[in-house]
Design a protein that fits this description.
This protein is of the alpha+beta class and about 325 residues long. Helix content is about 15%, strand content about 25%. The chain is built from eight helices and 13 strands. The radius of gyration is 19 Å and the shape is globular. Bound molecules: ligand MTE. The site of ligand MTE has 17 residues, from strand 4.
Length: about 325
């Protein structure tokens, strides 16, 4: 991970000012190189954010961001309770530093890595993605992360590596929700190797320019923006390459409701509710929440539909 700076927290207003400055500079054609020296330090010469160097990516620049408060107080993280406000209240027991990740299975370079070494070789990017939860709500989040493909290639997966499996920490002292058998712990998720190598997939270590808050999956989580939010597994300690399709946690829990692919799809309803539209968190009133039409693959059809050629998406949900 890039070197952390201690007392360098950027507030949200400053963050928005800096983004506006960057956008205007781009419109005016002012040269901003690809690898910007911390976008947060461009305006006002303010040092800020927890990371040294983050490049702006082309993803999601026009989406309206949710606030830091919304993003960090309305969460799904069952290891800290099943209520949306539970993780913000309870996740202080998680110790995200030091943190180790094991890499195993069908790859040449296996091992146990310290998170800092694990992330250090890669350029951090900002990716603004809409998180579309399977519960038919969404919010837009400015993630900081690294392309998953770049990380995975380092471990040289063999030709037998057809799937990549991720696991969350198993430690009921740090994650008290694991004392209750709500899910089959540890939380597990998988992707096909093609999905994992798609340029949209990232491993995230921060949001709004700051290190990931515990409730959002500190210190490292997956983001797969064309899939329902449950695929974006939090607090990852293990990455395993294998030949067979894994059984992910929610599929094991309720196979008629949650599949392996979990691609965002307005035409395939959840057995208990429609997926045609989504409630935009915090927008509109209590009695008239703002809704938007859900888009196939969450709007990334062009980038990912080829991954599913010949697959019946209604059966492979
Ligand atoms: N990862 C773990 N380990 N445990 C969880 O309960 N919930 C998932 C996903 N990752 C979950 C998880 C679900 S259902 C969603 S919608 C997203 O995290 C929510 O991410 P957020 O709280 O950062 O918005």
């Amino acid at each position: 991970m890039a070197p952390l700076k201690d007392n360098s927290v950027t507030d949200e207003k400053t963050y928005h000012n800096r983004r506006a400055f960057i956008k205007q500079s781009l419109r005016l054609g002012v040269g901003l190189s690809f690898a910007l020296k911390a976008p947060w330090s461009l305006a006002e010469g303010v040092e800020g954010g927890d990371f040294d160097l983050i490049s702006q990516s082309k993803y999601g620049g026009d989406l309206e961001l949710h606030s830091y408060k919304e993003i960090t107080n309305y969460n799904n993280f069952y290891e800290f309770g099943t209520g949306k406000r539970d993780p913000a209240k309870n996740a202080h027991t998680l110790k995200p530093k030091p943190w180790h990740i094991s890499v195993s299975g069908e790859c040449e370079n296996k091992g146990e890595f310290d998170l800092e070494d694990f992330i250090a070789p890669y350029q951090l990017e900002e990716r603004i993605y809409r998180l579309r939860c399977v519960e038919a709500w969404s919010m837009v989040i400015p993630w900081v992360g690294v392309p998953l493909a770049a990380v995975l290639k380092t471990f040289k997966p063999t030709s037998k590596a057809k799937y990549v499996v991720f696991k969350t920490l198993l430690d009921s002292e740090q994650m008290p929700g694991q004392k209750r058998p709500i899910l089959d712990w540890p939380y597990l998720e998988g992707l096909t190797i093609g999905e994992a190598m798609n340029p949209l997939s990232i491993l995230s270590v921060g949001l709004y320019g700051k290190v990931l808050p515990n409730q959002n999956g500190a210190p490292i989580r997956l983001i797969v923006p064309w899939k329902y939010g449950f695929k974006s597994i939090k607090s990852i300690v293990s990455i395993h390459f294998q030949a067979n399709q894994p059984l992910n946690t929610w599929q094991a829990q309720a196979p008629s409701e949650y599949g392996f692919y979990a691609n965002v799809n307005p035409d395939v309803d959840h057995p208990r509710w429609s997926q045609a539209s989504e409630r935009v968190i915090g927008r509109g009133g209590f009695f008239s929440p703002e809704k938007r039409q859900t888009e196939l693959f969450n709007g990334y059809q062009e980038e990912v539909s080829h991954l599913y050629d010949g697959l019946d998406l209604a059966r492979n949900f």
